[in-house]
Amino acid sequence: MQNYLLRNINIVNEGKTFVSDVLLKHGRIEKIAPSIASPFLAKEINGEGKYLLPGVIDDQVHFREPGLTHKGTIYSESRAAVAGGITSYMEMPNTLPNALTLDLLEDKYRIAARSSLANYSFFMGTSNENAEEALKVNEHKQDICGIKIFMGSSTGNMLVDNFLTLDKLFRESESLIATHCEDEKMIRANYERLKRVKKELDPADHPIIRNEEVCFESSFAAIQFAQKYNSRLHILHVSTARELQLFSNMLPLKDKRITAEACVHHLHFTANDYGNLGYLIKCNPAIKEAHNREALWQGLLDDRLDLIATDHAPHLLLEKQPPYEQAHSGMPLVQHSLMLMLYYYKQGKISLEKIVEKMSHAVATCFSIRNRGFIREGYMADLVIVDMDRGFVAEKENIVYKCGWSPLEGFRFPTSVSHTFVNGCLVYHNPGRQYGIGQWDESSKGRRLSFDR
Known about the structure:
By secondary structure, the chain is an alpha/beta fold. It contains 12 helices and 20 strands.
């Protein structure tokens, strides 16, 4: 394995930004010091003026393999993630077949072992009928990120709305429980109510059907279960101002039993964008009115919301067309999530240190990921170098997603990724060419994440 010496680079890590050298050896961070003597067989990279961040860890993605590979594969979407500075991800179980057994879950791990360019973990799926099987994850909690409960509808047979099943899962799970919180009965009632007055629905109806109350009631129910049994609960993609009253910043993250996240699209888009983007930004939970976005930013900055994710969910463009009932929900985001947050840094909305905290440190802490998420000696060398002065416009020519489109097409980003290291391997390097069309080393694959539990 090639070793690297990064010279005079701005390190953003654990609340500080400082200039230093960093030596990467045998896949790990060997040394961090102001001046490191050049060792034998280490390739030097001049980091002057550039910024070194711990690789982003995305705890919520849908890479579509197996069964939905016309949308994306573990290889294609992990490649897009690496181009965007994401070095590790946790993928959801609503593939086909749904990952509702340990054998099906391990099938996904085998696919990733031979094809993923980033490090990986996969959630165990749940249904109203598979509680006993899902709870087998208790025996594997050091090498599986957790179990996923869809409390709102999803692909296949993964809606869990039976309170006896929910009670059992929360009572007996020793693993982290991640929930998609939307009340399915309320969604259906809102839909029927709207259909009585409108013959054809349009994109702007989505946040009416999946409104604030739908999210709040479901999140409140999940928290009640978690508090009843002291379960380790993580609520995914919080999208409303009202839900923020359910979360606290009174404890350090490592001591929290209930955590929550914001997703980049809920921090960027509002309901006003349906007019231009239509079903391209249809997702669950829905993008809502602007006051929710502002509240999410406040909750992120004051630590009621603990981390930032993408909920990356690619579809073909033809699958994002009307009518409302047939337009698929979800959008591709992993290639641009870090760049979008750096845009808001340039706008003065958030600090570099806070971005690193919410996209790397906090994810590692929240999930107890072993030896990743920080720039520390001895940790795995999952790192991203950012050029703060070389921007780009998102265009079809530089989009890496298999689906070939992005809701951010035409958006000008002020920064770009120049290098992405995964386990010390320089997987992606853009030496100044068009963003996204850089140099790739795909000889080394990502590794299965492990957890200190």
